[in-house]
Amino acid sequence: MGARLLSFPKVAEGSEHQVYLDAEYARVWKVTKPGLFGENYFIENGKIAQKNCTPLDYLIRLRLWSMVFGTAPRAVGMTDHGQIVSVHSFIQGQLPSQSEVNSFLVEAGFTPLRQKYWLWEKAFPKLGFTVGLGDARDENFVRIYHHIVPIDVRLWRTV
After folding, report:
1. pLDDT, tens digit (0-9, with 9 covering 90-100), for 23-72
2. How far apart, in whole angstroms, are the C-alpha atoms of residue 62 and residue 75?
3. Share of the chain above pLDDT 70, in %
4. How far is residue 141's CA from residue 70's CA, in Å, rounded to a whole number?
5. Which residues constitute the domain of residue 50?
6. DSSP state, 14?
């Protein structure tokens, strides 16, 4: 799988992964950077703090993303270097404004914790936990007509 990914053009790079475009099948492949699986954020003593994620945290992130938004990258494997490989349909659209993203999140039931730092949360009382959402910046979403779709967000269980 790794050699095939390298034949796709790299279209983006985030803090914890590289993104490759498979134009033939209209999908993107994300490969985590060696030893990097993102961060979770939390408030400690009134200040935002963060912790590095484990591979399990990253996989939980993808599962929560699917649960909360109905669409998410799907983990499909791991490289010889311990990098997680995921795939997602290519979503073509426009970059939404931050106010559009904020409205979308409120409509989806999220509450801002530190909105200027793109940190939100949503309670799931029936499931007995709350989901934290970080990196909710406009550049991590796509607007398709009147719908907003997350394409690179961080989610975790907070309770």
Report:
1. 999 999 999 999 999 888 877 887 888 899 999 999 999 999 999 999 89
2. 8
3. 96
4. 14
5. 2-157
6. -
What single string gives the DSSP state of each residue in 49-99? Answer: EEEEPPHHHHHHHHHHHHHHHS---EEEEE-TTS-EEEEEE----BPPPHH
Q: Which helix (H) or strand (E) holds 42?
A: strand 39-44
- Predicted confidence at residue 6, as pLDDT, reads 57
Q: Are 121 and 132 in contact (CB under 8 A)?
A: yes
| Nearest one of 94, 74, 89 to 26, comparing CA atoms | 89
Question: pTM of whole model > 0.85?
Answer: yes
Per-residue confidence (pLDDT) for residue 4, from 0 to 100: 56
Query: How many separate domains does the chain show?
Result: 1
Exposure string of 112-131, with b = 16+ CB inside 10 Å and e = fewer, is bbeeeebbbbbeeeeeeeeb
